[in-house]
Design a protein that fits this description.
Blueprint (H helix, E strand, L loop, with lengths): L1 H26 L9 H4 L5 E3 L5 E3 L4 H6 L8 H4 L12 H9 L3 H9 L1 H7 L8 H5 L23 H9 L2 H5 L7 H7 L1 H8 L12 H5 L16 H10 L7 H5 L13 H38 L1
Antiparallel strand pairs: 1-2
Amino acid sequence: MILKKYAIILVVISISIMSFSAFSATRVSGLDENNCLSCHGNENLEVVNGDGEIISLYVNEFAVNTAAHRFIDCTTCHTTDPHNISTPLTKLSLAEKCGSCHEYEYKLHLESVHGQQLLVGNSDVATCVDCHSYEGNPHSVIRVLEYNASTYKKNIAETCAKCHADEELMADYGIVEKVYESYMRSFHGKAIQLGTYEISQLDKATCTNCHGYHDIQSVNDQDSPVAGLDNLVQTCDQCHVGAGVEFVSGFLGHKEASKDNVAVAHYTEIIFTIILASVIGFGALIMIMAIIRYSINRWRD
């Protein structure tokens, strides 16, 4: 009877291993019906784009085999005759191509602060692949809900930081606040960072909860969810039900507390810093006096 049970367990384990192997095999087999990777698998393959920039045409096979679009053939995006079609390979053309399938998201992006700048030729702004791929590569876009995706909840702040933590780039647009650092120091940032499991981080607030996803507006735009107390109250109320003006007026945002920005928080921080320093200093003094007294007693003995 015992041997029969062990035999059943072994059969179940064997079937599970075979099923997992089969799943893994399909999971890493990207669709390449025209054998495009025979050329584009060459790391030295390059072209000059419409902006005069040298663009690599190398496609990493491993990235393709693990990407969200791995079961969509290359010709779906590149047409059946890609070599005879002029493709500028700019950020705008790339976003337009994504928009041919993801129409709603593309429409929202064009109306956003990023999309509006993209339309006037600004290549600094974030587009589809900048957010959905760590490398900014359309061939390595991962599903949003995969835990290691750049757009998964716990990784969003880091993804936004690729641009918004670049002080030189931000200075060109008059953004002096260290938005990524200030977020990670905040309660929300610490909650995301200290979450034990990825699933426990899904209900924590990150950049997109306050600023939106594809339809991000400038903080100076009256329609922005973080512009003015009225909009901010509605935004905070999504998580903090019943949050009113008093609650929101104490929110520092990405600015440091100062006498001009939430003065109460600024002076409270100073008071607690003094108290903390006094407690530590007093404790250290007691320890030093105890050590001296102990040394004197030992010397007398």
